[in-house]
């Protein structure tokens, strides 16, 4: 039987702000004693919306995995139908001016940590994975997805624009022509379509099988020198990582300018309403 030790269960202070959804951690890290592989699970009901708290927890958990000598990292969700609904739109709609800065900075941190992780990474995509969810999945090196879900960068459909580094992750997985068309269309792919285009690597029939397949992928590096592997990965990803490092401040200002446009606020409000109406029906 697999013996896992669950890390990262340090309680957090309870907040009063609407965004502080829980007093406990929104991610857990379980390391398999036998394989040395860490499974990082997102657990922010109802849809793993990436708010400031979840982003901070993700960043901390990725840091722990980097620090605890794990052989690899598998990212997944505790929700049986949603990997992540992407950025929590409530963070961007009528935003608090200080919090929105922290929010975007935390998102940048998560991308830099995950895309630039020194350990092999895989995503067990056990549910829908739009926008920011797709960003997390495509920041990993390997993707296994369950049937009958959707994945993609749908930003243009919401009247917003995915930043360059969202596109970098997407382009590291898809051929440029396919990526360009999908980004412009804001296209969401079914599991089957995602497999055929190469956006995911394998389909699994259950979460357990997806985790196994991710572990098998990470196992393929068992006989590769870890330092040589991680330096190779980092060199291959250095241009995109360095670009965001160099442009972090401008990227933040661009986001703040865009998010505060009245037309963008109006669009986000309408989209939120449509999500709520859909949830009621
Ligand atoms: C403005 C500048 C922008 C710069 C660029 C930023 C780049 C943006 C990246 C993003 O990630 S934007 C977010 C994009 N995400 C989506 O479009 C997903 C929207 N959600 C869905 O499609 C569905 O909810 C789902 C994920 C497929 C799940 O469907 P399901 O039927 O299971 O649940 P729902 O009933 O739809 O939702 C339950 C509950 O959750 C709320 N919700 C869903 N997604 C979000 C979200 N992204 N942010 C905030 N809230 C979300 C939904 O309204 C329901 O709420 P309640 O009605 O229960 O209160």
Query: Helices and strands: which structural class?
Result: alpha/beta
* Assembly annotation: single chain
Largest sheet: 7 strands, mixed
Annotation field: number of helices: 10
Bin the helical content: 40-55%
Task: Give the number of DSSP strands.
Answer: 10
As a percent range, the share of strand residues is 5-15%
Instruction: Please indicate the count of domains.
Output: 1
| Low-confidence sequence ranges | 1-23
H-E string: EEEHEHHEEHEEHHEHEHHH
Rg from alpha-carbon coordinates: 18 Å
Write down the CATH class.
Answer: Alpha Beta
Main location: mitochondrion
Keywords: Acetylation, Fatty acid metabolism, Isomerase, Lipid metabolism, Mitochondrion, Transit peptide
Protein name: Enoyl-CoA delta isomerase 1, mitochondrial
Pfam families: ECH_1
Fold and architecture overview:
By secondary structure, this protein is an alpha/beta fold. It has a single domain, classed as 2-enoyl-CoA Hydratase, Chain A, domain 1 (Alpha-Beta Complex). The protein contains ten helices and ten strands. It has helices spanning 52-67, 89-92, 97-115, 132-139, 164-171, 176-185, 191-197, 207-219, 226-259, 262-280; strands at 4-7, 27-32, 37-42, 72-77, 121-125, 129-130, 142-145, 150-152, 189-190, 202-203. The strands form two sheets. It has a seven-stranded mixed sheet with strand order 1-2-3-4-5-7-10, sandwiched between helices. Strands 6-8-9 form a three-stranded mixed sheet. Strand 2 (27-32) and strand 3 (37-42) form a beta hairpin. It is globular and about 55 Å long. It starts with a strand and ends with a helix. The relative contact order is 0.12.
């Amino acid at each position: 039987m697999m013996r896992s030790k669950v890390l990262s269960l340090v309680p957090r202070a309870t907040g009063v702000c609407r965004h502080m959804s829980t007093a406990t951690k929104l991610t857990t890290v379980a390391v398999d004693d036998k394989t040395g592989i860490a499974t990082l699970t997102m657990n922010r009901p109802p849809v793993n919306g990436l708010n400031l708290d979840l982003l901070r927890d993700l960043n901390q958990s990725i840091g722990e995995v980097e620090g605890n000598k794990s052989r690899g990292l598998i990212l997944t969700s505790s929700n049986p139908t949603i990997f992540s609904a992407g950025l929590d739109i409530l963070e961007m709609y009528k935003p608090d001016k200080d919090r929105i800065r922290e929010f975007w900075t935390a998102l940048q941190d998560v991308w830099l940590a995950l895309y630039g992780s020194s350990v092999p990474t895989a995503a067990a995509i056990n549910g829908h994975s739009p926008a920011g969810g797709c960003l997390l999945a495509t920041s990993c090196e390997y993707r296994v997805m369950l049937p009958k879900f959707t994945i993609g960068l749908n930003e243009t459909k919401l009247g917003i624009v995915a930043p360059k580094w969202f596109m970098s992750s997407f382009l590291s997985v898809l051929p440029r022509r396919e990526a360009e068309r999908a980004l412009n269309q804001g296209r969401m792919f079914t599991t089957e379509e995602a497999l055929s285009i190469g956006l995911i690597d394998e389909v699994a029939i259950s979460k357990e099988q997806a985790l196994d397949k991710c572990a098998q992928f990470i196992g393929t590096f068992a006989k590769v020198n870890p330092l040589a592997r991680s330096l190779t990965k980092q060199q291959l990803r250095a241009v995109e990582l360095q670009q965001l490092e160099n442009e972090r401040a401008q990227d933040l200002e661009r986001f703040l300018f865009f998010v505060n446009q009245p037309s963008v606020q109006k669009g986000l409000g309408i989209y939120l309403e449509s999500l709520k109406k859909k949830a009621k029906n």
